[in-house]
Amino acid sequence: MYIKYVEHELKALFESEPISIAEKEVGMFIYSKEDNRGAKFILNCSIYEKKCTISLGLGDSTALKLSLEDVASLVVHDDILKIRQNNSEKEYIIYFEPNFYITFDKKINESPPTLA
Q1: Which residue of 13, 14, 65, 81 is most buried, as measured by CB atoms within 10 A?
Q2: Residue 107's pLDDT is what?
Q3: Beta partners for 95?
């Protein structure tokens, strides 16, 4: 298996081509984007290993770095990137506009908790 994604949607979201870490066929890419305040978001993907690392930083400092395994898909909707994992209750949502903002939410198809 592999991470499901639409390449041209990622290119449009990041406004650039990805950097290939090896031959393109190996499926290892780095996407990066800097916002208007100098914050930088980096998405490092290994498509066939189903792994992603997301980093958010300012200048040379890294404020957040997450390593995700068993990634099922990368979904782009407008200026939002959603990262979904297999067998996980969380969905990682990265907002690109007006500045980078990351949330960790439950999957959309999951029912909200009920009060006893």
Answers
A1: 81
A2: 56
A3: 80, 101
